[in-house]
From TrEMBL:
Homotetramer. It is an enzyme of class 2 (transferase). This is Alanine--glyoxylate aminotransferase 2, mitochondrial. Its main location: mitochondrion. GO terms for biological process: glyoxylate catabolic process; L-alanine catabolic process, by transamination. PANTHER family: ALANINE--GLYOXYLATE AMINOTRANSFERASE 2, MITOCHONDRIAL (PTHR45688:SF3), PTHR45688. Multifunctional aminotransferase with a broad substrate specificity. Catalyzes the conversion of glyoxylate to glycine using alanine as the amino donor. Catalyzes metabolism of not L- but the D-isomer of D-beta-aminoisobutyric acid to generate 2-methyl-3-oxopropanoate and alanine. Catalyzes the transfer of the amino group from beta-alanine to pyruvate to yield L-alanine and 3-oxopropanoate. Can metabolize NG-monomethyl-L-arginine (NMMA), asymmetric NG,NG-dimethyl-L-arginine (ADMA) and symmetric NG,N'G-dimethyl-L-arginine (SDMA). SUPFAM superfamilies: PLP-dependent transferases. It is found in: Mitochondrion. Belongs to the class-III pyridoxal-phosphate-dependent aminotransferase family.
Length: 468
């Protein structure tokens, strides 16, 4: 059952049947629609809701891959954007426009000292490209360390640290990039049943004693091993997300990142926090993911939620690191576009005015605990994890073996959720994870609806399995 939709303005409920028919008649390029078996043709969005051409409404739990942070067509962001579109679209950053300066000041007011220099880009890949470039020219070293399973972009530079094989299509070699073991308390060898910063802990037991995290210490040993044996004595940097996103919302043991940062700095490297998914209040307790690990990076990269769907990204670093980049020898034609700056500022306002970080924490915690009840009930739900509205649900054949649930079975559950009106993301490297990362304006009532739909899809799966 759909919750009532009285809060959606009528104009957003119109169904464009004629338009739908026209699109159906055309041959849609397979490169454009590949997610669901039957392509989902969307025509409108309003806050946490999406509408297809057949008049169906969906609760969007994936937010256009963790991007629509404050809600589809958020009224205030939309109006601010329209006003700027009528004034000035483009200057390039070789000219000054007040929106650029205002946005840079506003953005850095959300970041701790000494992170005060902003470079604006158009995407997360570009932001990470620039971050790695900065680390290399500042340190005059070349090697970058990254985690297995990390995704940092699809450009040749970032594919080197994107450590999910299929994305490389067999050719991106990542010269100067070393992949280190992922400190994953669910799939890793040392468990971690009370090691992660989440309201829900993993079922995988660990041998931690009070105050000492065994799993974290083991992973730190592995990290040291990479630093001591795989790379030169000095390195350019270490890039990591505070919670790994594309790979299925993987969380590290508490305290790991802080120690890893220290080890990297001892070898002259810079620490890059990829906040493309974890930034802008998504983890609830803090505005940035790195704050949940009690660290201050040297370079922070961001995209996705920064523009609520408008293509933009940013790199923020210190004055000292930025000084290594000759001012007139770095520019980006579209980065810092006045429209993007206005969108970015309106998104920051919306996060504050609508209390979205707090909402992320409250609704996220509520959802995590509700999904954890399903984990306790269903054998195929292996792990429920995350923080705020960054949630992963890992699906297994059974909790004993933890083998990933076969693809056809996962797809069926996922398609069933869609047919019942809930869009969920997928992810994982050698694992099967559902990703729940909705616009941060989602309510507890939506959460109840989502959990109910997911429970129904799991029950249907069990019925199918019993019939076999
Ligand atoms: N970093 C992370 C953590 C991401 O999830 C992504 C995109 N999935 C990127 C970087 C690359 O961003 P973009 O697709 O905007 O280039």
């Amino acid at each position: 059952k759909m919750p009532p939709c009285d809060f959606v303005p009528e104009k957003y409920q119109s169904y464009a049947y004629d338009h739908m028919l026209k699109i159906r008649e055309r041959n849609i390029s397979p490169s454009l629609v590949t997610y669901y078996k039957k392509p989902l043709l969307l025509h409108q969005g309003y806050m946490q809701w999406l509408f297809d051409y057949e008049g169906r409404r969906y609760l969007d739990l994936f937010a256009g891959i963790v991007t629509v942070s404050v809600g589809h067509c958020h009224p205030k962001v939309t109006v601010a954007t329209q006003k700027q579109l009528a004034r000035l679209w483009h200057t390039t950053n070789i000219y000054m426009h007040p929106s650029i300066q205002e946005y840079a000041e506003k953005l850095t007011s959300f970041l701790p000292d000494p992170l005060k220099v902003v470079y604006l880009t158009n995407s997360g890949s570009e932001a990470n490209d620039l971050a790695m470039f900065l680390a290399r020219i500042y340190t005059r070293n070349f090697d970058i360390i990254c985690f297995r399973g990390g995704y940092h972009g699809g450009s040749p530079y970032t594919l080197g640290v994107t450590s999910i094989g299929p994305y490389k299509h067999g050719i991106a070699n990542g010269f100067g990039c070393s992949t280190t073991m992922l400190p994953d308390v669910f799939r890793g060898p040392w468990g971690g049943s009370h090691c992660r910063d989440s309201p829900v802990q993993t079922i995988r037991k660990c041998s931690c004693s009070e105050g000492v995290c065994h799993a974290k210490d083991q992973y730190i040993e592995q990290f040291k091993d990479t630093l001591n044996t795989c790379v030169p004595k000095t390195i350019a940097g270490f890039i990591a997300e505070p919670i790994q996103g594309v790979n299925g919302t993987v969380q590290y043991p508490k305290g790991f990142l802080k120690e890893a940062y220290q080890l990297v700095r001892e070898r002259g490297g810079l620490c890059i926090s990829d906040e493309v998914q974890t930034g802008f209040g998504r983890t609830g307790s803090h505005f940035w993911g790195f704050q949940t690990h009690d660290v201050v990076p040297d370079i922070v990269t961001m995209a996705k939620g920064i523009g609520n769907g408008f293509p933009m990204g940013a790199v923020v670093t210190t004055k000292e690191i930025a000084s290594s980049l000759a001012q007139n020898l770095h520019f980006n034609t579209f980065g810092g576009n006045p429209v993007a700056c206005v969108v970015g500022a309106a998104v920051l306002d919306a996060i504050e005015e609508d209390g979205l970080q707090k909402n992320s924490e409250e609704v996220g915690t509520y959802m995590l605990l509700e999904f954890a009840k399903l984990r306790d009930k269903f054998e195929i739900v292996g792990d429920v994890r995350g923080k705020g509205l960054m949630i992963g649900i890992e699906m297994v054949t059974n909790k004993g073996s933890c083998h990933p649930l076969p693809d056809e079975e996962i797809s069926r559950i996922w398609e069933d959720c869609k047919d019942m009106g809930v869009l969920i993301g997928r992810g994982g490297l050698c694992r099967q994870t559902f990703r729940i990362k909705p616009p941060m304006c989602i309510t507890k009532r939506d959460a109840d609806f989502a959990v109910e739909v997911f429970r129904t899809a799991l029950e249907r799966h069990m019925e199918r399995a019993a019939e076999k």
